[in-house]
Amino acid sequence: MTVPMLPFNRPHVTGREFDYIREAIERAHLSSGGAFSRRCEAWLQTSVGCARALLTHSCTAALEMAALLVDVKPGDEIIMPSFTFVSTANAFALRGAVPVFVDIRSDTLNLDETAIEAALTPRTRAIVPVHYAGVACEMDAIASIAGQHGLVVIEDAAQALGSTYRGAPLGRFGALAAISFHETKNVISGEGGALLVNDGALAARAEILREKGTDRGRFSRGEVDKYTWIDVGSSYAPSELTASFLWAQMEHATEIRERRLEIWNWYRSAFADLERRGRLRMPVVPDHCRHNGHMFYVLVADPSARTRILRELNDDGVNAVFHYVPLHSSPGGRRYARQSGTLARTEEAAARLVRLPLWVRMEQSDVTRVLSSVERALG
Predict the structure, then answer these.
(1) Which residue from 113, 128, 22 is spatially nearest to 72, judged by alpha carbons?
(2) pLDDT value of residue 1
């Protein structure tokens, strides 16, 4: 008998998505900026405590808006980890800036805050911490360095909605932050994102940039009698259909997070013995951080073990993946960016990491199945 494939991800649907999409259609407002968009943005502002939240068609779009908002110029340098998705770097490279890659911490796999100052030059403009797996970077130290050197902090919180650092929501620490609602995230809309604005002085311009550089937002609110071209910008807003799907998710965001944390803890209990025996290492979450159950990964002994585990898990019908190819080693990274110091921990983690299936409707038996496959692969 063929065992069904256990997918890496299965997008979760709460049950109200179709109702809200139908409602959006009946309202006859399918472009951006309708009632569902306003609900989602208000929810984000309340949940995170930011001055303004603006839905975007992707987290990539939110990062590109952030680069525009802080007036990144050719030759500016932006400090970030190499262990991240390409959008983190692309947003700034598109403006002619130079991503400067620094190493990650060995525990959380987040940006190593102790490596930042060695990467600073007179051209440094911003620091972009990436909250990997929904676990917070050390924001107190990063904010202190930024304040001493007059730098902007832009949080890449793509994976971190619902996580906190010292009790405060991630996405609230930088002047700007970017969130993802891609189908692999906790709260989803298929594709989608949001720009969180904590520096209130940037809020009005952020709206203009999102509206193709026009003051259409003010026109929609009746504040002006016509709208016109004001600034640079692009079409960054999602449709009301996307926002209506997203609202059904936001209504259940706490429930989704708690369920993912339950599954994450099943993994942690199941793999504890393998970690005690030194066969692998599980994620590290510092005591002052609360994560959102976004991801469970293991670090195995060496790259050859990782290759064998991925092959054998997939042969067993368990779809596991690796994460990421370090940006500094990629053709784009060599062309558009530079690295600061050794990135040995980045290279080591990228070669050893196995990301395991985690989605809302997984059962404890699924976790047991994953464990059995990993144990067989490890011999």
Answers:
(1) 128
(2) 52
